[in-house]
Amino acid sequence: MDVGELLNYQPDRGAKRPREEDGGSAGGDEDSRGGKQQKGMGAREMARYREAATAAGMEFGGEMRETEELTGDKKKILEKLMDQDEEEPEAEPVDESSVKKMILTFEKRSYKNQELRIKFPDNPEKFMESELDLNDIIQEMHVIATMPDLYHLLVELNSVHSLLGLLTVVDLLQELTDIDTLHESEEGAEVLIDALLEGQVVALLVQNMDRLDEQVKEEADGIFNTLAIIENMAEFRPGLCTEAAQQGLMQWLLKRIKAKMPFDANKLYCSEILAILLQNNDNTRELLGEMDGIDVLLQQLSVFKRHNPSTAEEQEMMENLFDALCSCLMLPANRDRFLRGEGLQLMNLMLREKKMSRTSALKVLDYGMIGPEGTDNCHKFVDILGLRTIFPLFMKTPKKMKKTGTSEKEHEEHVCSIIASMLRNLKSQQRSRLLTKFTENDCEKVDRLMELHFKYLEAVQQADKRIEGEKHEMVRRGEILDDSMEDEFYLRRLDAGLFVLQLICYIMVEISNSGISQLQQRVHQILNLRGGSVKVVRHIMREYAESIGDGKSDEFKEAERKRIMDLLDNF
């Protein structure tokens, strides 16, 4: 008899995540445990439903296939479990006393089960009864997940260590760490998370996942539920991401993402967890770089160079991997790894192929080339003929962007940022090649630049007008304009297009200072023709210079501001 199947068997508590391997649909919107309504179905859940397992012998109403017969020990066990389900007495009211009793019963049954397993390691018949008893109490303990204010009892009665020692409680841990439940009682949640971390929960979960075989439906579900536990804890306490990554999670995620397996919900979930680990965290970014994670990401994304994702779920995975790559490029050391891994060549090809990956490839190039750390990437981009790719995107914003959810403003921001980065970082021959592009076809690129300037200037001026009206109204009511309100107004101006306008003005000022007289003449000619003002450009650039270099050293900020002010003097 396969004891693993017995351990993983759970009485029918409603179809939580049916998996279907031959395609088809799945039913069941409700998790009958505690009667909780499922959260809004995202791409990850859709992928789970698409994989609903016929392998478990369940059709999509949750009924057993008539064609499949169970024999021997398995049949007896299932009959016993089903009988217990049918004879289940009315639930007792759950309070602190009954939860204590439940936890102590769990401890006794867990101890008895371990004792019998050690005594009869080769004779499952001897510990079958204790296995069933332990399974029963674990199912009863799911009710604790509805009472986070009693989580402290799990810690006080030392049950967390026992729970972590059992592979069958992944489902229970997922419910206990459900993010909505954790926020119901912050105090109880803190106590539980502290105890789990003290017990090296992530390391144990990773070891468990290493042992599981995803070809078996229950074990694939176990991995999905394990990733849900990690996501819940990371959302409740973002600070644990570094610790989790160092306890083997980063290595496991990279291994799973590059595994030669068909796309499924688990691969999608892995991409999501990886993106979460890398958000605003230089420690995890460094760790991924050291593990050759940049190469793994580039290899996985190369699939989408000439082919669009085949489903919405696969598209979400692609976006997650692009987000992870952008996060990694925030760390200067990873820019070099990206360069050596021929990341620029891949992104350039994606821009040319005009597939769904193009929008995200543009964003990656922006992240890879920005700031002084992007100098080498800027030079390499020109060497691989990237100017031929980027300027057509500058001249005309593609219309087919709705599929990827990218706005016209986002596209124009990334393109302008890439050109601004090249103007800042390129030297000698490569810089000359860039400036020559602006003189081609009777300075058509300068004309386009000025068209964008007036487009975003108008948008920002309208936003400024609305904000001034709101400020005037607040003063009239006697309200105080504090720093937080000013920050909010500034963010609204950026959202209206101020940052794109600043980039455009920077490009105008740079090309006017290039020593190519026809560029400077064309910029001023169009400004005068359309009623523009050098004074307005200078004001925008001064504001840009003041906000530059967040997170950089004071020395860099000062040098960059001086450089911009010198450019303005000659504008």
TrEMBL record:
Top-level taxon of origin: Eukaryota
GO CC field: spliceosomal complex
Region annotation (Disordered) ranges: 1-45
Gene3D superfamilies: Leucine-rich Repeat Variant (1.25.10.10)
One Pfam family from the record: CTNNBL
Primary localization class, coarse: nucleus
Sorted UniProt keywords: Coiled coil, Nucleus, Phosphoprotein, Repeat
Name of the molecule in the record: Beta-catenin-like protein 1
Organism, as annotated: Xyrichtys novacula (Pearly razorfish)
Source organism phylogeny: Eukaryota, Metazoa, Chordata, Craniata, Vertebrata
